[in-house]
TrEMBL record:
The organism of origin for this protein: Cercophora scortea
Primary enzyme class: transferase
Reaction(s) the record says it catalyses: S-ubiquitinyl-[E2 ubiquitin-conjugating enzyme]-L-cysteine + [acceptor protein]-L-lysine = [E2 ubiquitin-conjugating enzyme]-L-cysteine + N(6)-ubiquitinyl-[acceptor protein]-L-lysine
Name this protein carries in UniProt: HECT-type E3 ubiquitin transferase
Source taxonomy: Eukaryota, Fungi, Dikarya, Ascomycota, Pezizomycotina
Domain HECT: 807-1175
Length: 1175
């Protein structure tokens, strides 16, 4: 319709012959120039007038509404005033003709109409009516004078009045309202059907205010329990009552009346109904800190009620509800329980401590009770007494128990060993009789389809792991799918088996592999926990296939987990009102890193670390004392071995480039500087800053995790080499190690690996050689040192300490004698070798202060060095807080660190040293880059202290009562210096260890703690300093490619028989012995090789050590010896002995004419050391 007022919608004909254009020709009725504009104004004015009329009508309606509302409010106010006056008249001037029953019948309608409990006067009026109702036993309702449905509103008034308790002075005691509510519930429980949430919330706050011992405790207990035990009500009411009791009452912060009288309150409770309500109401995640606190209090109260109730049922729902709550709260419990745990963070530092306030004492004590000996034993007894008759239910029960125990271990890391010990000591009843728990779980694991598929087909492992997504999509509860249940069983078995392996010595382990002949003797718990050979083969295959996939396909698995987290993040629960309260600092919104969660606390990294720990412990035992087939661990079929070396080097180069880009971008800056203090979190401003810091920390952690995932994605072969190196042949790994060093040299030295070329490039970078240039003099002297014989180590440390990782670059050494006279010789590499071997010889063989030897002459850091240094400073009267004391202690650790750099330099340059290291010490080298670090065990004590090892074995096998030996969880450390009267100090192995007696039950833990103290805790600072220095020169990831035996070969050479022909092929000749154009060797040289073939292997080793300073060949043969083995003529004197220059691997051999003379002279020289000199 056109905007005109003609009354017709028909378009009128309009012919424009003027040539002028109008904006709307249909509104123009004149040819005047302003006609169109006038018509538009008319329409606009009409629209404005219409809007004004509409606004006027709206104002009139609003005024009428306001007047109506005000009149209604005034009428209600006047009515309430009249009702209040009537009530005041009724109770202020009571009519003698009206009894209490009649008065209550008249007063109830008045109080329902007029009472507003928010006003204290109405609070008093409501109280007087409540007293009348109580005196008459609510006869006003039972007689029909007042409709029974009015009890609903009256209940709400009583609850609101009780909520106002403590808000101001009043003449009515809250007990009156409690008694009234109790009477209403007994008379008509349905009155509270819609008020149960408010009812229990108000009761919880009231209990919080009145303290632990109120005079009306019996009444309070009655009103709390009344809705839960109400008779003649539908099941839905009882279900709602238990639900609100859990969500609104038990979540209250501090309910002293309940906490101090738990047994009294729990007498009539049905724990299964309460557990059922929690199972139905629990959310997927705790959400905000307020929601976390509420759930923590619910968990604490739930535990206390169950303990007080002592309700035992074969199929109780309590463990399932407890498991669910622990799973939801696993992270906050782990972070906050540690802060208040008297055991502290432990010695291993295996978990992080979140800077939050500690748990309330009551919550902490209730949570701690979950890991008490009695509680865990009772739980295991309940779970295992009747776990089902069919194999399916047996696996199901095993999975549930596994999930619960894994959650406990994650939530309470400081109590992890106690939990594992309880499970290790448990016997589980099966149809075949009771068996050790580890055997039970091994049986459950071996029956799972996941285990069978992975063992039988290494290529199917990835498909098995990716089933997590499809199962979670197809089930309503993805976390409880068959996939998850099977994995939980597997992971608990691995947790328990790793614990048992720590306790087992080799005799226990191998006893199951080769059962003794003759009559069967009683076996210990440890020996009964061993696995037979076929089981170990299957287990190692499973771990090998699974571990390979977790490292090689990590990027694909985490990518799948990212999509899965989007699918499962939508689950909600009745706790959603808690979790919806978000603020601008909510850290839960920032934590969106990919996850691959099996159960609470077992994310992708924890899952992979556990698998790796079990696999490496079995591999280390097999490498120490082989029991598996020779090529059992290899997985060469997964790679193209011909191209493997170049592919790994390329991955290393790409990762190095990526890390350099990150360093240039500053992404790593500040990650280690974000620390918060506990005391600043208890004020509002402090909490606000804390939230900001948490957000920054999470962002930094996510960036770091994303970088690690990217590095893993571009270097899957490197991940295998770092964490599962044994799947690649040793020779290949040695070649990779040398290539990594070569690549590092190229990157650091700008492509010049030759020392002389590198020095020339440094000079040319400054514009040419200028002896007067200070900068060039600095470049020339920075890597040059003058070393005095007899104090090589101290001079080396003074000269080269400031270099740091610059020690990787070529160094030049000038030796001086005791009179500071320089020795002749030019350092072309040989003097450097002499310098490095001299440093190691002086540090290890001449100075027994830093390193000591075991009974096999293998070296390890002196575990008493720190204590001895402290004792020496104390005797010197130097206070601990002084700068001299700190400098002295730091200097000792610097010596360890510098020695680590020297050993690293020898490995970096391919220089072999004749030093044997203890196996447990070398294990720390290979585990320096691993997440689980070094795990001390009783077998390593054998390398440390044979006497202590035998003592621990005697204790382990002691058949009597160990408590009779009066041992406690303490250990004695020597602090006195050598050759001085022995002084010791006693230390606790665990907190309050001097108060804990060693018994038959806990002696495995005692032995484990002794081993951990001697192997890890006592030498921790020394070992850490040494490894820090070693890691400056040799990347710890490179060392992780080898086990302890292989590392010793890498440091000192191959211990296999000397290959004379290989040595001959790679020997160089000079002087008269130089091979001419005819290609023939000199006759004396031929005699030398003839003699070498005749010598015994130990004699060949003596010759090799005489020339090269080490009796072992390089790992990849003598082609790797640097400098090359060289023979030069030593004159024609037949009586002269051969001599050697070890710095350049040079043998100076006189021109002997007979093999007999050559042999006798050679053996005499190498055994007596005659003729040893430096050219």
């Amino acid at each position: 319709m056109f905007p005109t007022f003609t009354g017709s919608s028909r378009r009128s004909r309009n012919v424009n012959l003027s040539g002028q254009k109008t904006t709307n020709p249909f509104t123009s009725t004149s040819w005047a120039p302003n006609a169109a504009i006038g018509a538009s104004k008319t329409v606009a004015h009409a629209q404005v007038e219409r809007q004004q009329r509409q606004q006027e009508r709206d104002r009139l309606r609003a005024a009428l509404c306001i007047q109506k509302t005000w009149r209604g409010s005034r009428a209600r106010r006047n009515f309430r005033t009249a009702c209040r006056q009537a009530l005041d008249q009724m109770y202020g001037n009571p009519d003698p003709a009206i009894n209490t029953e009649q008065r209550s019948a008249r007063a109830v309608p008045l109080v329902l109409a007029a009472c507003q409990p928010s006003q204290l006067e109405d609070h008093d009026r409501l109280g007087r009516v409540a007293q009348d109702l109580l005196q008459t036993n609510f006869s006003a309702f039972s007689s029909g004078a007042v409709d029974a449905t009015r009890l609903d509103k009256l209940s709400r008034l009583f609850i609101t009045a009780l909520e106002r308790y403590g808000a101001g002075s009043t003449n009515v005691e809250p007990q009156v309202f409690l008694e009234a509510l109790d009477a209403i519930i007994k008379a008509r429980p349905q009155s509270l059907a819609l008020l149960l949430g408010q009812y229990y919330r108000v009761l919880g706050r009231y209990c919080h205010q009145i303290g632990p011992s109120p005079p009306s405790l019996q009444l309070l207990r009655t009103v709390v329990v009344a809705p839960l035990v109400a008779a003649a009500v539908p099941g839905s009411f009882t279900q709602s009552a238990y639900r609100e009791f859990a969500l609104s009452f038990l979540t209250q912060t501090g309910v002293p009346a309940l906490e101090c009288n738990t047994e009294y309150f729990s007498a009539e409770l049905d724990i299964d109904r309460l557990a059922e309500s929690i199972l139905a109401a629990a959310p997927a995640e705790p959400g905000t800190p307020e929601a976390q606190d509420a759930l923590l209090w619910l968990l604490a109260h739930f535990i206390a009620l169950k303990k007080a109730k002592k309700q035992h049922k074969a199929h109780s729902l309590y463990p399932k509800a407890l498991y669910l709550l622990l799973s939801i709260l696993a992270k906050p419990i782990r972070a906050r329980f540690t802060a208040c745990d008297p055991r502290g963070a432990g010695d291993d530092g295996e978990f992080e401590q979140d800077p939050q306030q500690a748990l309330p004492a009551y919550v902490s004590s209730q949570l701690a009770s979950l890991v008490d000996k009695g509680e865990i034993s009772d739980l295991l007894e309940k779970f295992t007494s009747d776990h089902g008759e069919t194999s399916f239910s047996e696996l199901d029960d095993a999975s549930f128990l596994a999930g619960y125990i894994l959650t406990l271990i994650y939530c309470f890391p400081t109590r992890g060993d106690d939990i594992r010990m309880r499970l290790y000591l448990a016997d589980i009843t099966t149809r075949q009789g009771p068996i050790p728990a580890i055997k039970f779980f091994w049986g459950a694991v071996s029956k799972t389809s996941i285990f069978s598929v992975i063992v039988s087909n290494e290529d199917a492992t990835l498909d098995v792991l990716l089933q997590k997504r499809s199962l979670s999509e197809s089930t309503t509860s993805g976390a409880d799918s068959q996939w998850h249940r099977q994995w939980r069983t597997i992971l608990l078995f691995l947790e328990l088996y790793v614990f048992v392996l720590r306790l087992m010595d080799d005799d226990d382990f191998f006893s199951e592999l080769s059962p003794p002949d003759g009559p069967i003797q009683p076996v210990s718990r440890l020996r009964s926990s061993g696995l037979p050979m076929e089981s170990l083969k299957r287990l190692t295959l499973f771990l090998k296939h699974l571990g390979f996939t977790l490292y090689y396909n990590a990027a694909k698995l985490l990518e799948a987990a990212t999509g899965l987290s989007e699918i499962t993040s939508g689950r909600e629960g009745p706790f959603q009102p808690f979790t919806q309260k978000r603020n601008s600092f909510d850290v839960s919104q920032a934590d969106k890193t990919p996850s691959f969660v099996i159960t609470a606390g077992i994310d992708f990294n924890a899952f992979r670390d556990l698998v790796t720990a079990a696999m490496r412990m079995l591999y280390e035992r097999d490498s120490r004392r082989p029991f598996l087939p020779k090529r059992h661990w290899l997985m060469t079929s997964k790679f193209d071995m011909e191209a493997f070396l170049s592919a790994v080097v390329l991955e290393q180069k790409r990762q190095h480039e990526l890390q350099e880009e990150d360093n240039e971008g500053g992404e790593n800056a500040g990650e280690d500087e974000m620390e918060t203090e506990y005391h600043s979190n208890f004020t509002f401003a402090g909490q606000t800053r804390f939230r900001h810091v948490q957000m920054e920390q999470l962002r930094a952690q996510q960036k770091k995790a994303a970088r690690q995932r990217l590095l893993a994605a571009i270097g899957p072969k490197l991940e295998i080499l770092r964490h599962m190196p044994f799947v690649i042949p040793f020779e290949t790994r040695v070649q990779i190690f040398r290539q990594f060093i070569r690549l590092d040299k190229v990157q650091r030295r700008g492509g010049d690996t030759d020392p002389d070329m590198w020095r020339m490039r440094l000079l040319n970078s400054g514009g040419g050689l200028d002896p007067n240039s200070p900068s060039q003099r600095s470049l020339l002297t920075k890597h040059h040192a003058q070393i005095k014989r007899g104090q090589v180590f101290r001079d080396a440390m003074n000269e080269f300490w400031e270099l740091g990782d610059g020690l990787k670059e070529p160094i030049q050494i000038t030796f001086v004698d005791e009179f500071d006279i320089q020795e002749a010789g030019i350092d072309g590499g040989g003097v450097t070798k002499e310098f490095l071997t001299s440093v190691t010889k002086e540090s290890f063989t001449q100075d027994q202060r830093l390193f000591i030897t075991n009974n096999k002459n293998a070296f390890y850091p002196n575990p008493c060095a720190i204590d001895q240094q402290r004792e020496a400073l104390r005797e010197a009267g130097i206070p601990e807080e002084s700068a001299m004391y700190r400098d002295s202690m730091n200097d000792l650790l610097k010596q360890y660190e510098f020695l680590g750099r020297v050993i690293g330099k020898c490995m970096y340059e391919g220089i072999l040293i004749d030093i044997n290291f203890a196996g447990f010490f070398l294990l720390k080298w290979s585990s320096a880059n691993a997440a689980d670090s070094y795990r001390a065990n009783i077998n390593d004590l054998h390398d440390l202290d044979e006497e202590l090892y035998q003592g621990m074995l005697r204790l382990k096998n002691y058949t009597g009562d160990v408590s009779d030996l009066a041992l406690d969880f303490t250990i004695t450390d020597q602090v006195s210096l050598p050759n001085q009267p022995v002084r010791t100090v006693t230390r606790n192995l665990i907190p309050n260890g001097d108060e804990i007696l060693v018994t038959n039950e806990n002696r495995p833990l005692y032995i484990s703690y002794v081993a951990r103290h001697r192997l890890a805790v006592q030498p921790y600072a020394q070992t850490r300093a040494f490894l820090r220095g070693l890691g400056m020169i040799i990347d710890p990831a490179w060392l992780a490619m080898f086990n302890q035996t292989e590392l010793q070969r890498l440091v000192g050479g191959d211990s296999s028989e000397i290959d004379v022909e290989d040595l001959r092929r790679h020997t160089e000749y000079s002087g008269v012995y130089a091979i001419g154009d005819d290609g023939q060797e000199h006759p004396t040289v031929r005699l030398f090789w003839e003699v070498m073939h005749q010598l015994q292997d130990h004699e060949r080793r003596d010759v090799l050590k005489y020339v090269t300073s080490t009796p072992r060949a390089p790992l990849l043969g003598f082609s790797q010896l640097s400098p090359a083995f060289t023979i030069r003529d030593g004159g024609q004197d037949q009586e002269r002995l051969p001599s050697a220059s070890t710095c350049v691997n040079l043998l100076k051999l006189p021109q002997y004419r007979s093999a007999a003379v050559l042999k006798s002279k050679l053996l005499y020289a190498v055994t007596s050391g005659a003729g040893f000199d430096l050219s």
